Design the sequence.
């Protein structure tokens, strides 16, 4: 694959308390293990960053698919939930739930647009077959 764009970030710290920063300076934040996982919480964590990235990327894919199909959308949103749990092998696994809001579009057409976005979104393609990802169109 020839990259069109490359994002670069550096993570440092002791594994429970750390810091992440992008080389362009746009992201510069502390990261902590969530309280639910025995950490201090109160800061970003990888799952929050993944949820934000997946949600934003999927939303962009949705709008791109709609433009290609000449469907006018407005006030759309994508909510992303990223769960982390033990995988049974002593490690951890992720699961993602995407909730897509597409106002004023019939439910069947809205789900078709969301399903088409799931086929082109880079995050969807990266996770397909690796983790559970559900995509549902919901009311606002």
Sequence:
């Amino acid at each position: 694959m020839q990259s069109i764009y490359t994002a670069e970030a550096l993570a440092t710290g002791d594994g429970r308390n750390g810091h992440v920063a992008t080389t362009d300076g746009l992201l510069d934040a502390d990261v902590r293990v969530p309280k639910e996982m025995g950490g201090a919480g109160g800061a970003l964590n990888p799952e929050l960053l993944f949820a934000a990235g997946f949600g934003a990327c999927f939303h962009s894919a949705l709008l791109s698919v709609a433009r290609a199909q000449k469907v006018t959308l407005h006030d759309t949103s994508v909510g992303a939930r990223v769960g982390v749990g033990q995988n049974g092998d002593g490690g951890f696994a992720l699961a993602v739930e995407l909730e897509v809001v597409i106002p004023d579009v019939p439910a069947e057409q809205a789900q078709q647009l969301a399903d088409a976005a799931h086929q082109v979104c880079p995050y969807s393609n990266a996770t397909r077959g690796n983790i559970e990802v559900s995509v549902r169109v919901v009311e606002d």
Remarks:
- The radius of gyration is 17 Å.
- The chain has a mean pLDDT of 96.
